[in-house]
Design brief:
Layout (H helix, E strand, L loop, with lengths): L1 H23 L5 H36 L3 H13 L16 H24 L11 H7 L7 H10 L6 H16 L10 H8 L1 H19 L2
Helix pairs in contact: 1-2, 2-3, 3-5, 4-8, 5-9, 7-8, 8-9
């Protein structure tokens, strides 16, 4: 994960330097400057998406192959910190707007839904979701906020985002809509993803609570 963060710091520096150089050149036309900025931004997002995706795939593979719970939790932490929203920069010049952050977070939930369903359906490793140690490990790392994200939100006066908090917020909004305290229009795409898979996410929270209590009782 440190390698990924380092790569993005270098990329941000490169793109910032490129933008400065382009903007300071009197010989470069405005359309050429805009095009260079577009290419730099596209390259940044492509590399960030690839690096984080590769890191998550490797973490999941190791999690599934690990024999001990501690190893599973370690790899689940790597997985949680490797979601692309954890490396959102808050730099609108790089395309990292609040809307982009929401988009990346939505992507993380769509992926987590797929992972949980695949785990539940994989009879070769588990009889059912209730005894799935991989789901247990993933549930214990839902609260994770990467050091990169902590640094970004601290510098920009923003709120930290974790999947655990988003799940809780969405479930509350879903209840409020059901009880008539909020209009359905208040639900966003993340709320709808969680609502469509409500039982799965409620189960994930129950597993987290159960495993956390078991660790406390030791």
């Amino acid at each position: 994960m440190a390698r990924t963060v380092t790569l993005f710091i270098l990329l941000i520096s490169f793109c910032s330097i490129s933008a400065f150089a382009d903007g300071g050149s009197q010989e470069r036309r405005p359309d050429e400057t805009d095009r260079t900025a577009e290419i730099s931004t596209a390259l940044f997002h492509q590399l960030r998406a690839k690096e984080t995706r590769d890191a998550r795939r490797e973490a999941l593979r190791r999690l599934q192959e690990s024999s001990s719970m501690q190893e599973k939790i370690t790899n689940a932490q790597i997985y949680a910190n490797s979601h692309e929203f954890q490396l959102w920069t808050a730099n609108p010049d790089m395309g990292d707007t609040p809307a982009k952050r929401h988009e990346l977070l939505l992507g993380a939930f769509e992926e987590l839904t797929r992972v949980m369903r695949e785990e539940a359906e994989d009879k070769s490793r588990h009889k059912n979701l209730a005894i799935n140690s991989n789901i247990e490990a993933l549930s214990l790392t839902l609260h994770k906020v990467s050091s990169f994200q902590k640094n970004v939100v601290s510098k920009n006066g923003l709120e930290e985002v974790s999947m655990l908090n988003e799940i809780k917020k969405s479930l509350k909004k879903i209840r409020d809509v059901k009880d008539g305290r909020q209009p359905p229009e208040e639900l966003n795409e993340i709320d709808e993803e969680i609502m469509a898979n409500k039982e799965l996410y409620l189960h994930l929270l129950r597993v987290r609570s159960k495993v956390t209590q078991a660790f406390r009782d030791r």
